TrEMBL record:
UniProt-listed GO biological process terms: riboflavin biosynthetic process
Quaternary assembly: Homodimer.
Protein name: 2,5-diamino-6-(ribosylamino)-4(3H)-pyrimidinone 5'-phosphate reductase
Pathway given in the UniProt record: Cofactor biosynthesis; riboflavin biosynthesis
Short name of one Pfam family: RibD_C
Amino acid sequence: MHVVVNAAQSVDGKLATRRREQLRISGPEDFDRVDRVRAAADAVLVGVGTVLADDPHLTLDEEDRRVERLRNGRPGNPARVVVDSTGRTPTDARILDDAATTYLLVSASAPPERREALAAAGAEVVVVEGGSGTERESESDGDHVDLVAGIHALAERGIDRLMVEGGGEVIYSCFAAGLVDELHVYVGSMVIGGRDAPTLADGEGFTEAFPRLDLVDTERLDDGIVLSYEVGDGTP
Ligand SMILES: NC(=O)C1=CN([C@@H]2O[C@H](COP(=O)(O)OP(=O)(O)OC[C@H]3O[C@@H](n4cnc5c(N)ncnc54)[C@H](O)[C@@H]3O)[C@@H](O)[C@H]2O)C=CC1
Ligand SMILES: Nc1nc(O)c(N)c(N[C@@H]2O[C@H](COP(=O)(O)O)[C@@H](O)[C@H]2O)n1
């Protein structure tokens, strides 16, 4: 599985305001780049925090890209994935419409009635059992789906290339589990501030074994810059 993380942040590293309201950090040029990254992916994954805050759709904006995918024997839109331990995704969330397959990765603690309601609303609910650990961390408590096992379940469903679009809790967990191959960060020319505003990587935070990144590209778009990294093997 190849995992690409993409996010837009302010200069001070925030993904949104302290109120967790969706905020336009980038502009049309960057949204087009994001659309290209989505088009190359088999699935786009977010955490339930992002679904509750933004109600994203996560489909392709450009019809030409959908047509090209169909021509190549792929679904028009990539599948959508929500990491949602207890099944908090609203049944009327935009992500559950019929524009693409939507997988909800829940943990065994998700109440059966929520699983049933979400399946009835169109989701393919996948119960992720606690799996094997990784070199860094494996999480499978009530609030955290084991991402290693979750990614394995997605691979079994034919997903080879996964784009992770946030938010900060899930991005941190992906790094903590050693799953990230590429990181693309759009840095918008603004300051958001706020100690409680979500950042690119929240969660517990690292105190050692910090993931090391190789800067492989920079690109000026809109009034900001895209930084593209490959994730190193952990040696400084
Ligand atoms: N600027 C940008 O590019 C983006 C900004 N955002 C912003 O980020 C905020 C949402 O981010 P967060 O609150 O961090 O939520 P999140 O989207 O990272 O979801 C976190 C939730 O997912 C669930 N979860 C299940 N398994 C998990 C695991 N293994 N690791 C982590 N979480 C797991 C937990 O319930 C957890 O509270 C919103 O304000 C949204 O607007 C979100 C996406 C992109
Ligand atoms: N790349 C990017 N730039 C911004 O300025 C943003 N605010 C975001 N936010 C995330 O994009 C997703 C929206 O998806 P749909 O347009 O609904 O398909 C969502 O996850 C936002 O948090 N991204």
